[in-house]
Amino acid sequence: MLDDRKLAVLRAIVEDYVSTNEPVGSKALAERHNLKVSPATVRNDMAALEEEGYITQPHTSAGRVPTDKGYRLFVDRLSQVKPLSAAERRAIETFLAGAVDLDDVVTRTVRLLAQLTRQVAVVQYPTLTRSTVRHVELVPLTDRRVMLVLITNTGRVEQRVVELPEVVEDTRIAHLRAVLNACLDGCGLSAVPELVADLPERLPAEDRPAVATILSVLLETLVERHDEKIVFAGAANLAGADFTTGLRAVLEALEEQVVLMRLLGETSGDTPSALTVRIGSENPYLHGTSIVATGYGSGDNQLARLGVLGPTRMDYPVTMGAVRAVARYVSQILAAS
Amino acid sequence: MLDDRKLAVLRAIVEDYVSTNEPVGSKALAERHNLKVSPATVRNDMAALEEEGYITQPHTSAGRVPTDKGYRLFVDRLSQVKPLSAAERRAIETFLAGAVDLDDVVTRTVRLLAQLTRQVAVVQYPTLTRSTVRHVELVPLTDRRVMLVLITNTGRVEQRVVELPEVVEDTRIAHLRAVLNACLDGCGLSAVPELVADLPERLPAEDRPAVATILSVLLETLVERHDEKIVFAGAANLAGADFTTGLRAVLEALEEQVVLMRLLGETSGDTPSALTVRIGSENPYLHGTSIVATGYGSGDNQLARLGVLGPTRMDYPVTMGAVRAVARYVSQILAAS
DNA sequence: GTCTAGCACTCTGTGTTCCCGAGTGCCAAG
DNA sequence: CTTGGCACTCGGGAACACAGAGTGCTAGAC
């Protein structure tokens, strides 16, 4: 059905269209890529490709434009991820190395990715549920208030002010802190609920109301921030591009955590560390856009996802290269800290 | 020079232009606002207003459009801040009351303001330098590493991992924590540097290298996060508007903390709690945009600034009302926590 | 003096027409 | 199977006319 030359034609169409943003015609195509055949032959191939749904023409007597299906074939079989230049890799490394804490790592990553790809970059905060407890701290503020601070191995810090049901002395708070740490240090966050389940019973009855309150806030913290937080950068890169769905819709989606979460999250398949590409109508919302995403985190411990969002007409090989590289570097950084 | 009727004409021009986005002519104006004079008279007044530079016409034989100077006069003398409806006030209150921590307060505030004004909202994080130390925590991670956590009275938490120059026992860490807290609890952050200046000398010589390291990280934390952090929301509201300076430039400015900082910061005058309005070319960058901003924080203790950014052609009375109201509510929330 | 009515003038935006050129599909010959 | 030739289609730009909204000006009315 599709011989090698037809595939070469499709590849050429995608490449030309991506770089010029204009429907590409048979003549220009036969000239610029040395296909060694005449425009007429190319036209025949194009007709076949259109028949199969890989390309389409905006109107009669215009050049051809790839369809979503065409991009899909291109990404799957006709292109290979383009590695970054040595200079770019060095730049990434030094830029990320300067981060002081988790917030900073995420902020730098998202900016870096946006700049590198000239698209909108999206980074999900490392998931709490997969990380482990490094330390739990209870800080007495007044005699009825303590601050609960949860520090994870990814450098994330969650804090909440807890209003106690009764006055509790500092020494008992200190004891409670010791018990909590003994119980939770190094445990996975997802294991926390069952680990603390019988904690009230193992303590003196007088402490139970306070403990119950503190634990409920702790558990609330775990579920609330689950993996909700996503940041983006590079919105300015949208200014030029034209989206079928409208610029406004894209910007709205970016500011809506839930939508963004689904766009990013649903790309996650069996192997989260693999590069995933969703093209145009393959996306749940935002049909006019494509998303290139991948998981990051050390080795088998995939923490979260990052990627970029852009118009369907994007340079997939380059974008995929950048996303993959940034994910690797940020994984390294997180593993080291 | 400008009698009452001319001012009324200017006001009417601004109001009509803001709501229709089309140059307003003498006839329509005389009809819609009951000025009790004929279009011809209005034309004479318009000629005078144009002479003085308050309005201009895009081209001969088009209606008039306010200039920056015209908006300025409108804001200063011809309009009054429009208070929110009771329903809106209630909505603000309940929405902000649900915030769990400082991050949440800021996030909710910026979204609320964006939604309320249908513009881009900008909120600066409460300044560290004006807040006070609530607690300093030192958490031993390994024998050469501690985590330094600084909690302020505004609910802000800063944390840093400190690499110690030598092994330090936990008991000495605990002692150091006690000393630090005794020294700093309740003090203004700006006072911290001098308060800790002589701390190493008051401790045993053996502790000094570790203390010096910890203190340097602490001081670094204070200056680094000074008042840098600014968040925005509502970029989608830019989609419709047209900026003389270009949408791209606006989006870039929004993502550039430094620029945003200057836009927001330089509106701060002698009385930070007052509403400030910068119109069009009055802005340092982004000449096509206007900014309505104000300080927030409890009473005389102004913590930071918030505001909105939009096209010069915006509904100033409504926007100013929303900004003022949100600033008040968020100040309340912060004072209460 | 100030306001009003009338009038001639000047634009922009829109709709129409026309034409060029790029690109196609098809066919017959190599 | 490939190629050259040819007639056909259609979008986009240029040229043009025209209606409508708005203005400035001047002469008259209160």
UniProtKB/TrEMBL annotation, chains A, B:
Belongs to the HrcA family. PANTHER family: HEAT-INDUCIBLE TRANSCRIPTION REPRESSOR HRCA. Keywords: Repressor, Stress response, Transcription, Transcription regulation. This is Heat-inducible transcription repressor HrcA. GO terms for molecular function: DNA binding; DNA-binding transcription factor activity. The keyword Lipid metabolism does not apply. Negative regulator of class I heat shock genes (grpE-dnaK-dnaJ and groELS operons). Prevents heat-shock induction of these operons. It comes from the Bacteria. InterPro entries: DeoR_HTH, GAF-like_dom_sf, HrcA, HrcA_C, WH-like_DNA-bd_sf, WH_DNA-bd_sf, WHTH_transcript_rep_HrcA_IDD. Residues 103-320 form the Heat-inducible transcription repressor HrcA C-terminal domain. NCBIfam families: hrcA (TIGR00331). The gene is hrcA.
